Amino acid sequence: MRLPPCSRRQGCHNQRSATPADLPRFPPTANTVVHCLRPFRNTDPPYLAEIWRSQPPQRSLLQPISAPMLELGVFSKIHFDRAGLIVATQDDVPVGFVHAGFGPNEQLTALDTTLGTTYMLMLRGGHEDPALADQLLAASEEFLRSRGAKVLYVGGINPMNSFYLGLYGGSEIPGVLESNKLLQETCIKRGYRETGQIPILQCDLKKFRTPMSRQVRQLRRSVRAEEVCDPAATSWWEACVWGSMQRDRFQLLDHSENRVVATASFWDIQPLSASWGVCTSGLFDLYVEPDWRRRGAASYLLNEAFIQLRSRGVGTIEAQTMATNEAAIAFYDKLGFVEVDRGRVFRKDSSSHNGSA
Description:
This protein is an alpha+beta fold. It has helices at 45-53, 67-75, 130-146, 181-189, 214-222, 236-242, 297-311, 326-335; strands at residues 36-39, 85-90, 93-104, 111-123, 151-154, 176-177, 193-204, 223-229, 247-254, 260-267, 280-288, 316-320, 338-349.
């Protein structure tokens, strides 16, 4: 699952660290609490983890979280920019934060700052102030524009998906979770429009049954399935996104030509899946060569993969796709997947400001 194609400017911009003067100023009004916005500091992680732990229960939000978990999923990434993580404080105590960033260029070799997204926005429980959420999202937009962003998104989604894996969403980052009403309302207020929905689907492997058909029997004679453990990254961006994750790739090889004709990639969704109490594997990439499509290759490959994963104690498979991809929805439904959650993607042009379309 990834964003629809849109125009990009190739290449990467040199990044610099922002100073407090770079952040937008919001003058206080009567009878309002004054919040200060500043860039991330190395002393912030315990406070940000505390803000995260104060969130209401959500199936796709890891709880409880700790500073080391945020380090693994966010701060340790080679392309993490402290200027893009903006912290709101009250009396010098963090009460909220917003995190903005970018995706890769077309070659997957560097950042492309023409497309930017707000990955995350959270307010401490008890400080759910819509005005503060608006200020933080405005600060995120200002940071993205200052680096050259022409299109703004809210919610991580492939290919802008390198942060918060294993902490939020599931098998992939699904935009803004449907349960996050505060952020959705703030997006609409600031002129974003919803451009897509992402159903989060799960399959109970205890109920999964191997499909048997004439087509499957024919495939058994022409292909073989094999597993590649911990496959090497094929690009800089793939290493940024998946380098610290435990991954497995299953593939089908054509007997006659000994070439790979289909692949399915999985990872263990840790530590988020541990909070579900069920060993879960996330399907994040499924590809079939054009000349092998509509021949049952995807179903056969996933069947072989599911059997292997189930033998290792995996109880659930999770996958995501765009709600408009009717073929994929029907395919997963046939395999026994059911929707357990949903995310939404919001977008606006960089030139659009609060209240404009």
